[in-house]
Amino acid sequence: MRKAVCASIIVALAACAPVQPEADKAPPAGDDDPIATISKIAEGEIPESFDWEKTFPSWFAAVPPFRVAGPEMGGVYYVGTAGLGMYFIPTPDGHIVLDGGMPGQGKYVADAIRTLGFDPADIKILLNSHAHLDHSGGLAELKQLSGAQMVASEGDRSALEDGFYLGSEEDSALNAPPVEVDRIIADGEQVGLGGITLTARITPGHTRGCTSWMMDLPHEGKSLQVLFFCSATVAANRLVGPPQYAGIVADYRRTFALTRDWQPDILLANHPEFFGLQAKRAAQTAGDSNAFVDQDAFPRLMAGLEKAFERALAKQKGAEK
In this structure, are strands 211-219 and 196-202 parallel, antiparallel, or unpaired? Predict the structure, then answer.
């Protein structure tokens, strides 16, 4: 693999990797931590080849699927890996899947759905948080399996349908299997199926069409608001000279302003590090049925991400001079 391509891979992966909720706190050390791994690669010699699974083992490590919250039918289930969040919502009229993981992981998601006792052929709607290969890579496979309707934002449509990484189109190593978008969703529009309604909130910056999804979920006699957050990390995303895409800085700031007052009862995301999946799942397994309920999680996360964004922007501007 060419050195330039490898450098772009590092940039892309860094842009996808989560940061600690407290921006000034260093991420934990360990070869399975994305930030630490990327830092080691970037500081050393760029590798001649790139092995996704070897470099990011958690993205490929199987996790038994489980119900996060809500009733058996109409609840939210985790069908992702240890490092990539994918979600399943069954309804009497068919099922909804959010995100497809890495290329080739459509089968993984389908197998997880079968393990839960449902038929992946009954998936009717596919949703995507954003068009990066570690979240869109399995969508084409799932669509082929089920014939489901693919719903996505206009901002990410071209990247999904052509399979490229916006702003790094020349780097084929970042490509994902193309998936046709059947319905374009705008900010505030809703997707409904079998009594379940999800509302799209466009939260751009991480990608041009980064889409967060909200839903109300009955849980133990209460109605809880669930947020499937897209992302607002910067890491090595280009903010200047030239930016990853035109208007990226304004988009990040728009997202921080939009989400400032959001306080969902349950925060979920496409990388488990965003919401502390491991600890919450352990608490749930130990008997805490409200383990994933945490109204402080999202404000805490966003406060750290906004500080990290401003620091990254200042650093990149300084490097330009």
Answer: antiparallel
Pairing between β-strand 123-127 and β-strand 94-98 as defined by DSSP bridges: parallel
Average pLDDT over residues 213-227: 97
Instruction: State the pLDDT at residue 34.
Output: 54
Percent pLDDT > 90 in the chain is 75
- How much of the chain exceeds pLDDT 70, in percent? 83
pLDDT bin (cut points 50, 70, 90) of residue 173 is confident
Please, what is the Cα angle at 178 between 76 and 152, to 5 degrees?
Answer: 45
Say whether pLDDT at 185 is over 90: yes
Q: Is the pLDDT of residue 298 over 90?
A: yes
User: Is the separation of the CB atoms in 152 and 210 below 8 Å?
Assistant: no
Higher pLDDT, 3 or 296: 296
Per the CB < 8 A criterion, the answer to whether 69 and 77 are in contact is: no
CB atoms within 10 A of CB 188: 9
The pair of three-digit structure tokens given for residue 167, joined into one six-digit string? 């702003």
- Pair of tokens at residue 121: 């052929």
For 207-244, the three-class secondary structure string (H helix, E strand, C coil) is CCCCEEEEEEEEECCEEEEEEEECCCCCCCCCCCCCCC
Burial status of residue 254 (CB atoms within 10 A of its CB: 0-12, 13-18, 19 or more):
middle
CB 297 within 8 A of CB 280: no
What are phi and psi for residue 303, nearest 5 degrees? -60, -40
CA 309 to chain centre: 18
- Cα of first residue to Cα of last residue in the chain, in angstroms, is 31
Note whether 184 and 154 are within 8 A (CB): yes
| pLDDT higher at 32 or 151 | 151
DSSP state of 70: S
Q: Tell me how many helices (H) and strands (E) the chain has.
A: 10, 12
Please give the Cα distance from 139 to 160 (Å, whole number): 9
